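ARCHIVE RECORD
Type: protein–small molecule complex
Small molecule: magnesium ion
Source of inputs: curated submission
Record status: active
Notes field left blank by submitter.
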Amino acid sequence: MAKTEISTLGEFGLIRHLTANLSVQQPSTEKGIGDDAAVINPQRWASKDADVADMRLLVTTDLLLEGIHFNLEYVPLKHLGYKAAVVNFSDIYAMNGTPTQITVSLGLSARFKVEDLEELYAGIRLACERYGVDLVGGDTSASMTGLTISITCIGKASEKDIVYRNGAKVNDLICVSGNLGTAYMGLQLLERERLAYSNDHRSTMNEQHIAAFEGREYLLERQLKPEARRDIIEQLRKAGIKPTAMMDISDGLSSEILHICHQSGCGCAIYEDKLPIDYQAAVLAEEMNLNIVTCALNGGEDYELLFTCDINDYEKLIPLDDVYIVGHITKPEYGTNLVGRNGEEMALQAQGWQAFPSEK
Ligand code: ADP
Ligand code: MG
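STRUCTURE (tokenized, with ligand):
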């Protein structure tokens, strides 16, 4: 069936079509889509634990470009919409805050039709529903080059709860949630299949690829449909733990822990044998002659949380679900090191995702 040209609805018709019946979940959203600007009432952020004056507004934004950040040959648009929203929520959680509203801006080349955008928005809506976030605006424009998605997310946090990257101190424990390198292995699997089939298929992957993915759905899910770790933030809060530093792992553990160490003026020891690695990811890495430790350190797109905690919180940390202690913070003179299985030390290097790869 032929898809519908965007011109049949026009820009306003398209926006109305995509954003019809949006539910408002946040009491602070006084006006969403439909006027020149959305209206948000921060007074509604106050709670029994936090006075209005203690509340802070968090803002983060993320730009996704086709061909740079995603490949529509194997990324379904619904998944892309979901992921584009969730990666922003992840940044707000990484400040120990709660995401409340997003705006979505799109650049669309002529290739994209109404049905494609319905898929994209189905993913964005699902993410918003699951995380209790309101879609309150955006912008839409024609583009010369593929699909561009920029999402801005607004969040809230009580000033005393906010966790920055610069608070780590000597002897703090270094923790990560979930597992590392799995999203990267999912991408390797997708790339391998794309290349294997690129001769006989010109369009999106289909059922014929599924055999190669059997038993490896989790790897694909980690790449295509990541989740933000709201559950970890909630667990930490319930356990009465406030991390000393925190960020989400989008570019790989190595690169992120180096940010925390530089900003906090300290060093670190990360233990290779403590890195949480998924079994299927390890099996695939072996099959593809990749070093799973390198993948775990530099893979990126895990959207797990990396945080440091006071050593006195050790007892409270142990019962937490899906949280792993991978090392500790040291004096800056010690450097930023990976400690291997035989105690050998190697300087950690940021080899993860680079926004501007060098031309060499
Ligand atoms: P303006 O001309 O002031 O930029 P628009 O006509 O672009 O306004 O937008 C009208 C309304 O639709 C605004 O509330 C805007 O936030 C919303 N909007 C525009 N594009 C999108 C989009 N891609 N997703 C969600 N809301 C959108
Ligand atoms: Mg506009």
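CURATOR ANNOTATION: The mean pLDDT is 94.
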